[in-house]
Amino acid sequence: MNSRNQTGQVAGGLPPPPMGQDVAGAPPGGAVIAEPLPAAPGTANAAVATAAPAAPASSGSVGRTDLLGGWTIASSGESCQLFMTLTSWTGGYRASTRGCSSATLKSISAWNLQGNQVILAGQGGTPIATLQPSGGSRFDGSAGGVPVSFYR
What we know:
By secondary structure, the protein is mainly beta. It is built from one helix and eight strands, in the order βββαβββββ. It has one helix at 103-106; strands at residues 69-75, 78-89, 92-98, 110-114, 117-121, 127-133, 138-143, 146-151. It has an eight-stranded antiparallel barrel. The radius of gyration is 24 Å and the shape is elongated.
């Protein structure tokens, strides 16, 4: 614990850092930068574990935060990436796809949750696909009568 004298200096003669200014060598804005910890003694080259995105609860209850992040979406023999965020968007929340070749999957730009149903929407919030949880972190449904699923 540092003790201060009457002039506000920390014992050892250094003044406290100025209020509202970054300290030399500190991350900008006071940000905290986390780095992986070294391997525990007795372990060689231990890999750093990362948390996987949360899967929807097995009880069938699905919350918005269960759906955030990257997914693989598949339909008609094609699979590509689906990304869902909580940014407000026409049709619910922002969604985007990457690497899709079908016009239907390319057109996904929003998602919403109605009960346990996930609605994927396109331009102007027009529904494109409706999916239901089918166990684990998988959702199955259809887009215009064509089966579609997303999973991770």
